[in-house]
Design a protein that fits this description.
Helix content: 25-40%
Shape: elongated
Strand order of the largest sheet: 3-13-9-15-7-6-4-5
Number of strands: 15
CATH topology of the largest domain: Jelly Rolls
Number of domains: 2
CATH architecture of the largest domain: Sandwich
CATH class of the largest domain: Mainly Beta
Length: 307
């Protein structure tokens, strides 16, 4: 079956589709999901054909072109001994100037459906939740220690970059990102961060054709000894909590019983006769115990336009 799949993904001139099974072949997809997914980084070499296909799909690494394509905007990061870390908006008119003065450039959500849709379909995730972004890092620059709220797959396109990556997440399944040492902590993250310990880190050298998977909540920081371009495929997760919250709300809102007013949770003894919670909970248990209902909830959630 894998051989047939690979035949579909290849032509006489090389790869013509992103095949995650092929990219994860050095460790195997079963092992990836059992030992790495959401819990531990993975470092993998890519075949030359896969790297060539990804580079062709990304296209010219031209800052002005990428700034014009990025759906969620572009940023220039600058810092030196005189100026603290600063972020500036980038557009096609100034992208080349920021590139020339040695800024780190971040192009957010560049439309590359040939890559993002394939990754989403492989993960069984909503397609709109998986985006592609490009990083240009000049020599001598990098990122300070932080962790993200996304599951990240980074592919080194050109140059090289050194990563320091936590062996395991500092915060498992982190709901938000965080820069270490910052006083800005979201309400959802604060209780999870309290008492969290920074795990030991591993040094990895990313060269062209290397894929690095970093789970959300995993501390990492980077440095480039030479100009570097990298592609980031990130899944801003839809949590099981979201599936139940959104899916069940849409499912139950169709019922007049569930739209009823909360009554009889205490109060006058006569009002307690209007308490419908026990029968509603029985209905909810029946829904959750029915595989067909569970599949319908999942499909309805994944098929939503915005994921």
């Amino acid at each position: 079956m894998d051989a047939a799949r690979n035949e579909v993904a290849m032509t006489a001139t090389g790869i013509d589709a992103l095949d995650m099974r092929r990219l994860l072949a050095p460790i195997g997809v079963e092992r990836f999901f059992a030992e790495h997914w959401q819990t531990r980084m993975a470092l993998l070499p890519l075949a030359a054909d896969d790297l060539e296909f990804i580079r062709k799909t990304v296209g010219a690494l031209d800052p002005a072109r990428l700034a014009g394509a990025a759906r969620e905007g572009s940023q220039a990061w600058l810092a030196n001994e005189f100026v603290a870390h600063s972020v500036f908006p980038v557009d096609p008119s100034n992208a080349a100037r920021f590139h020339a003065i040695g800024a780190t450039l971040y192009f957010i959500n560049v439309p590359l459906p040939a890559l993002t849709d394939k990754l989403a379909d492989f993960l069984g995730a909503p397609r709109p939740k998986v985006i592609a972004s490009l990083f240009f890092t000049p020599a001598g620059s990098g990122a300070v220690p932080h962790f993200d709220k996304n599951e990240n797959f980074t592919i080194q396109l050109t140059g090289a970059k050194r990563w320091q990556v936590g062996e395991t997440p500092m915060v498992a399944c982190a709901p938000d990102g965080y820069t270490l040492g910052s006083s800005t902590i979201t309400q959802a993250l604060a209780p999870l961060l309290a008492g969290a310990e920074r795990p030991p880190e591993r040094t990895v050298e990313l060269k062209p054709g290397t894929l690095l998977y970093v789970p959300r909540g995993t501390v990492h920081h980077t440095g480039a000894g030479e100009p570097s371009w990298s592609l980031n495929l990130s899944y801003s997760p839809s949590m099981w909590l979201d599936l139940l919250r959104v899916g069940l709300r849409e499912r139950l809102a169709a019922s007049s019983s569930w739209r009823g007013i909360v009554t009889g949770a205490g109060g006058d003894p006569a009002a307690r006769n209007a308490n419908r919670l026990p029968e509603l909970l029985a209905e909810l248990r029946a829904i959750l115990d029915d595989p067909k209902e569970a599949e319908a909830l999942t499909r309805a959630f994944l098929d939503r336009p915005n994921g």
